[in-house]
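Self-study notes.
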Amino acid sequence: MLDVTNTPLKALLRRRKKGHSLEAPFYTSPEIFAADMDIIFGHHWIFVGVDPDIPEPGDAMTFDIGKASIIVTRDDDGELRAFHNVCRHRGARLVLDYKTTVGNLVCRYHSWTYGLDGRLLHADHMGEDFNAACHGLKPVHVRSLEGLIFVCLSDDPPKDFDVMAEKMAPYLAPHDLKNAKVAFEKDIIEPGNWKLTMENNRECYHCAGNHPELTVPLFAYGFGFAPEQLDEHEREEADAYARLITSSHREWESCGFPSQMMEHLDDMVTGFRTERLPLAGDGESHTADTKAACTKLLGKINDPRHGALHFWTQPNSWHHFMSDHAVVFSVLPLDAEHSLLRTKWLVHKDAVEGVDYDLANLVGVWEATNDQDSELVGYCQEGARSPAYEPGPYSPHTEMLVDKFCNWYVGRMESHLAGRGED
């Protein structure tokens, strides 16, 4: 077993063996966690919510990325704005609620008042020499990609977000999230390092034995398989699934739904992956009976059988878009061994609960799956603490995308450390 107790981070990164999981300190060390928050979550585009979280001028949403509390607002012109949630007077938090509606942003401590554009509008008793223009809220970069909200804490955010946005906009546009609403959201505190949560998401090797609800609308051969281990019947099934993907992509694209796989998980700073895949059974949605959960479809979609579009972004999100609803996921690290998984279910903004959809049916598959995954992540975290733990090999057939997540993570960490001249 490798002794990593006093090994510098740069050396740990350098000796990472591709095709294998990371060494234990990457999942357990508070020092490496601090580096993750600085380098990964402090310098990359982080998915934090959706436009329907703050649909109207004056709406605001807050969240924490490590020690940073952030406010995202919609200003009077309907534009998104983001700021550090810190009063410029003596540092009090401005907005204390997760979601709220405001006229201006008023600090309850001494009533310093800021506009939705971050300008300081009012500050009593500060003297004649006080320059309000120098004390506006500190801005944070914010972008909406067809209704998905990303922020970047760096002063110099990765510019290739524009590349991702250009490529992804046609895939996302038919689902029209800006004209959807959040039907339900749920937070889970997962008992594991954020990277374990992301690794778990990037494969379905574990799905057949752990996710009875999720596997109902999914085809088994979509999980990955070892061709050399298939018998004749299984090979015919795998070939039939490949033909189904080809024919489905052709049909969907003829209807204006881009579907082909695009994968840039470890060759871009703003890594992402997407593909539209067919669903099993009635083929309509991620539900227990594979039928649409909401009768009012998203956007201007008029056919529920357009499969499920998945969209992943590095470092912290994955999403599923069906014809009738969407499910979006964000992972926000809390400490070295705990992470916040925030899930939101979206339906058409005019859909009525109890009329157009049953909430339990809408959320059932992913609510169960999240609970199951949280337990699995906890098992991995417990194992990483063991003195017997050492990096294990990934399956080349079913875990190649986990490897790409780790490749991206190691590459981004090494790039930043090299740029700073750190060991």
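Second protein, same conventions, sequence then structure:
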Amino acid sequence: METTVPNHPTTAEHPAVDVLVIGGGNAALCAALMAHEAGASVLLLESAPRAWRGGNSAHTRNLRCMHDAPQDVLVDTYPEEEFWQDLLKVTGGLTNEHLARLVIRESATCRPWMRRHGVHFQPALAGTLHVARTNAFFMGGGKALVNAYYRSAERLGVQIRYESPVERIEIEQGRFVAAHCNGQRITAKACVLAAGGFESNREWLREAWGQNERGEWPSDNFLIRGTAYNKGVLLKHLLDDHGADRIGDPTQAHMVAIDARAPLFDGGICTRIDCVSLGVVVNREAERFYDEGEDFWPKRYAIWGRLVAQQPGQIGYSIIDSKAIGRFMPPVFPGVKADSLPELAQKLGLPVDTFMRTLNAYNAACRMGTFNHTALDNCHTEGVTPAKTHWARPIDTGPFYGYALKPGVTFTYLGLHTDDTAAVRFNNVPSRNLFVAGEMMAGNVLGKGYTAGVGMSIGTAFGRIAGTQAALASKQPQDFAKQSPLAFEKEATTPGVQNANA
């Protein structure tokens, strides 16, 4: 076990609180609210300015939810086993089933608690109806969700500090002692780490991805879909300086093919290109490289960032024709438009001869059945590699459209190994008062791949667990691990906030 880090000079000492929460997104806010409901005094440190608070959660839209019957905004059913099989498929088995099922079951019961803290839900909108059964959409999106949580936290008396990045923490024998932030040493009886991954740390991304066989540094061409404040400072500090148990591959991430014209940071969901399954995708050499119709888009959209990252120059091009218009959520920027395919290739800067050879081969290979973009239909290709297994229709009806794609990183999967108490582990021994939630532990459930809304499911479940456990640890540090993760929710005294188990 590590010993206390050397005592660096600080300018002030902050009076101890029961629970310190480091982070300002969904998981951190869930932890802060749950800790308060369990009777703890809470201080939350958000590294971003107030205007940029909420981390990547501000860019989200929905929460993947298990349900055994229709529920308000959710139609039909989405039982535990189907949710688990969806997760198992996208992760390729790189997931902890016990923790994954914990998240799945918690997703079935968390929404009443969310509503009591001001979150509102709405039915799926046009263009997202394919997830009306599996995902509950936030009214106003993720920004409205985090604003609701912040209002609730402020009303309840949770202390909140913005522009407060934590540089390091003190740990003694696996036990949290203090955090150092803006020249101040902040002590607490327990701590929750929910400060995000390292996706906005360009140097760490370069180190993780290295150089490819073409001599390129792929990560130099990555765009960051979310916050510029997730530098992974605490994650690296815990792993390198304190020897916390790690989980996950540093190159694995929620990585989406997004519009190449998106900004470096904070482009969010509106830069996603959702028409991939309705056409073909080619690289800068005008060649196809993967099955665009492999599965439903919400289950497969997050593989395309990594696929594009493996192409020359880390760029791809989504090509559709007029038959696809109106069948996908339009991105913020219009596509490049042309009246013919050769003209489209020229406008995109692609080799025209190769482009036409690729498109002609694909068109000739299409075997039309009954097209249905809401089902795994029987429209497929024959005699072309890669095959397109569903939704294969000839691209032959002008005008034609092309979207340049780059890898867009949402969040990284390298994180801290934990268990169903959300405790940080050192040499496989759980800490008595240091917990983790959100992106910093998502790799326990997501070894690779992604399915829409599951990041919010993980953050909500483990944020609630971590906050409850931290509050308990601040009162009964020797006994907390014996309790069930959500056993200590209590009825809040503030009007309008009720027992989450009610």
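Instructor comment on the second fold: The first strand starts at residue 12 and ends at 22.
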